[in-house]
Amino acid sequence: MSAPVDVAADELERGFEATLAAQRRIEPRDWMPEGYRATLVRQIAQHAHSEIIGMQPEGDWLLAAPSLRRKAVLLAKVQDEAGHGMYLYAAAETLGVDRDDLTDRLVEGRQKYSSIFNYPTLTYADVGVIGWLVDGAAICNQVPLCRSSYGPYARAMVRICKEESFHQRQGYELLLTMMRGTDEQRAMVQDAVDRWWWPSLMMFGPPDTDSPNTARSMAWGIKRHTNDELRQRFVDMTVPQAEFLGVTLPDPELSLDPATGHHRFGAIDWDEFRRVLAGGGPCNAERITRRRAARDDGAWVREAAAAHAAKHGAAHAAKQTGRTA
Amino acid sequence: MHEETVYDALTGAPDDARWAFGTGFDDPLAGVDTTVPEGVAPADLGAYCLMLGDDALVLAQRLTEWITRAPELEEEVAVANIALDLLGQARLLLARTAAAGVLGPCRERAGASVPDEDALAYFRDPGEFRCTALAAAPNGDFAHLVVRLLAAATLRLAAFDRLRSSRDPVLAAVAAKGVAELSYAREHAARWVVRLGDGTAESHRRIRAAVEAVAPLLADVFTPTDVELRLAAGGAAVDPAALRAEVLGVLDAVLAHATLEPPSWPAGAPPRGRLGDHGPEVAELLAGLQGLARAHPEATW
Question: Where are the beta strands (DSSP E) in A48-181?
Fold first, then answer.
């Protein structure tokens, strides 16, 4: 009895491969291998979690932003990050998972988020450096994902990348302004660059020699470039920006290789990367604790919204809230 | 491919023209005629805009405390949105205050590089703030958030609706823009009050407690100061006493819809906050708002 099923599965698989080969998009109702679905769920959820956890380090400066204009800019940025989280969770939901369940997996430590957000924001220059380097690295990673083989993810990334690009400019503009300010401000900027440079390079993930899933993800069109390719591109683009800004990147080995036109850079401390990823960073516990508290403290609100919707009809409630159970 | 180059070109052009806001920003009312109309005392107008501006600034700060702590991502976006609207109103009103010539000692405390709006927001002491307790009271739970927001937005909307015809064209324009924003804020809060009032037993209990906690904060909001009376007589401001029936009527209607008994609204009390007499929560809020800016009075942000 198994033969016809296998034949059908073969045909489905061939159709899937043909779609990829033709550079067309896989859509939610298309057949897809379980491994493809699981990889996408993991990647999109991790990206969504990063947006939401990423609200915290900068959010810590919302109340203390040093001018009303900077406060407005930062508040709008953090709001955008919540929006990005929403698009991405929605993209993940097209693969048959549920946002609340993904949030549970995050707070229970079963899914990860970008380890960069486990570092603290010590001065206001960190807000600018996060925009410039962290959002810059994120853009390098994410722009190729606008061509991801999975339609909903690719479309979400188009909008997200536009906004990230805006955030990066705002961050760089803050740093330019601070570099024209007082000596203390210039020192703040350099200190922030010193602290964020290496973690930013780690955002591209482990070296290709130690990234076992890369080949399969590239074959599936979920990933378009290797970690090391993207990291090199980021370094090459950032060096002239650092010069223009007037800061020194904290790597004595950083130099232009005239033969290749690329910058050579020093060895990354992968032990630190693994330690922070495994929960040993300065702020891992704090980030998850706050996310869990928001989930738990808000449970009664979500229950009430659901109860109200049930009493008054789902259509009416959907119109009111956009989203209730 | 163009999509690969989004990150390029942060550097290159030597001028600042490519930045979204430009650097060296200093006045949200740049290009606007800020002449105070004849018959309106500039000192009164400045003091009045400070009252309205401080309410917006302080409430925006309270709403911002909710960011990363809201019960749903949709609420993160909504609360940030309302806070941004209020912050925008605060900036215009503080700039209007400064343009009317009402700056006081904060201008001396702030460095020359600090714009007037920031001198007012960051370099005034708590006793120089003119916010009401309704705007400044510490946050509670989500029920408290939506009840306070409902009350504050209803009151402010009633005032702004009338201020659209203020004799000061700048204030009238700020109010006209604010009416749409405040209508959204009031609507958003009202929907949550109804949802929580008519949700579960737990949410009903919490929203009732929030109404009991917020109602006393309305004691002084309808009591006019001398400044408001003088300006209202000249058609530049609103006498808050004239808003009482409308505001409480709206609140009663929303609470009834939420299956809640209206509270006994408090009798009128002297406008302490408007005269700079605040509880310790205002000093605490301002310490968080102002600390960094005050540590670097000569800095440029």
Answer: none
